[in-house]
Amino acid sequence: AAATRASAAAAAAKKQTGVNIDGFCDVVPLSGNLTVHAILKALRKQPVAIGLNVKPLQLYGGGIATIRDCPPASSDKIKAINHAAVLVGWGVDSKSGRPYFIMKNSYGADWGENGYARLDMGFDEATGMGACALGTESNYPRTDDRACADGSTTKWAEKRNGDVYLMPDNVVVLPNGGGIVTPSRFVIFGYDCAGLLKILAIAAFFLCAYFLFSECLHCLCGRDDDEYYDAEEGKITVRPRRGKPGALLQSDDRTEIYGSSSSDR
């Protein structure tokens, strides 16, 4: 009976599909030949997700796209890309001898070369960016405890106190859907002061809110004092609304009526 259960469990295990993902591998970015070689080594194991500028490829119909045909969207490495795709292989053009990456897009089989495109492996030496900003961001999942290929760094996510941290950089990912990350540590003399900074930020927020409320209340309620002119005394004084005399603002015996012009005197 035990042998039967063991064989049944083994058969069920064989039918199971899928892999375990243990973080991801980040390819060294914008490093010229190092990035190209790191992507090639990773492609020997599995496809590689990339970020790229897809706008010049909207009407792509075939051929090898070069950096001249498909430049980055911006010189800024964050704004240089605006789309995600997958590299699935590489090759060499038989006529020109130009090496290229094979990219699978998400536009369907009617786009490009049956849904694929060829991107030149060349790159700009000044920026390290390749065709369509290739090399700016490239990564692939780390599956079943496999080691990352040479030229790639292991990274993973951790959840602590409701926040998600990208490790080993130890940066917290803001839950705004924009992929923005901010430093989660602020170290002074070996002490992590991130908690203190959060408290100070909250205190500053409430202090600003208090002053804003006070100003709004003052504008809505007006002044607490009333000005009046005493014709007999020839004075302008301020009397608080509580009924007590205020400070003397002006004393001029030549003035008969407050606010009158010289022609009225």
UniProtKB/TrEMBL annotation:
GO molecular function terms noted in the UniProt entry: cysteine-type peptidase activity
Stretches that traverse the bilayer: 195-213
Keyword list, A-Z: Membrane, Transmembrane, Transmembrane helix
Family annotation (Gene3D superfamilies): Cysteine proteinases
Source domain of life: Eukaryota
A Pfam family per the record: Peptidase_C1
Matches recorded under InterPro entries: Papain-like_cys_pep_sf (IPR038765), Peptidase_C1A (IPR013128), Peptidase_C1A_C (IPR000668)
All copies of domain Peptidase C1A papain C-terminal, residue ranges: 1-142
GO biological-process terms attached to the record: proteolysis
Keyword Transmembrane: yes
Family that this chain belongs to: Belongs to the peptidase C1 family.
UniProt name for this protein: Peptidase C1A papain C-terminal domain-containing protein
